[in-house]
Amino acid sequence: MSPVSEKNKKINGNLNKFYNYSFPKMTVLVTLLDKAGKPNIITLAWHSAVSIKPPMYGISIDPRRYSHDGIIKTSEFVVNFCQMDILDQVHYCGRHSGRKFDKFVETGLTPATAQKVKVPLIAEAYSHLECKLVDQQLYGDHTWLVGEIVAVTCDEVFDEDVLRDNVDPVLYLGNNEYTSFNKVRKKF
Ligand SMILES: Cc1cc2nc3c(=O)[nH]c(=O)nc-3n(C[C@H](O)[C@H](O)[C@H](O)COP(=O)(O)O)c2cc1C
Question: Is residue 51 part of a domain?
């Protein structure tokens, strides 16, 4: 084994904040209907593709979030991918609850009709995965909710299904701090 160079010198990370050591992560706005059928928006950094055939996407939500039970009751959600131009709205939706606030009204984000689900898309986002809930499992303090993707909608910002490099998705760093491919960094 080669000796560890100065550059690769290791120190202990903080296990309580292990997730920050996996960041930056693309941060999404997930739309859903609450138990009364009213649209809500939740900001999520914990999400992933799960399967290609059938196409499936997973999101990780703390059961205490208002959005959690709405998704389980209605069995639908949409994953909306956002750029830095709506960073303030992304942060707002991650620090306010649909229990008290109508986040579409408060942020001014525009609901748009989806192709295959009743949940609205967010018009200002650049791509949207429309999902029907197919499975849920509690792992520790978060529920992993898996949806089958029934439609993909997007702005004309993809070349052969690859994102153009003038698009600037929101990346979360942790501790209320964000960055982007264009290195526009902002701390709330
Ligand atoms: C950048 C960011 C990322 C977040 N990621 C998650 C996440 O992956 N899972 C989760 O349960 N909450 C996450 N949250 C917290 C929720 O977005 C927040 O509690 C929100 O207010 C819940 O809204 P609701 O009560 O309307 O469901 C995140 C918040 C921020 C600001």
Answer: yes
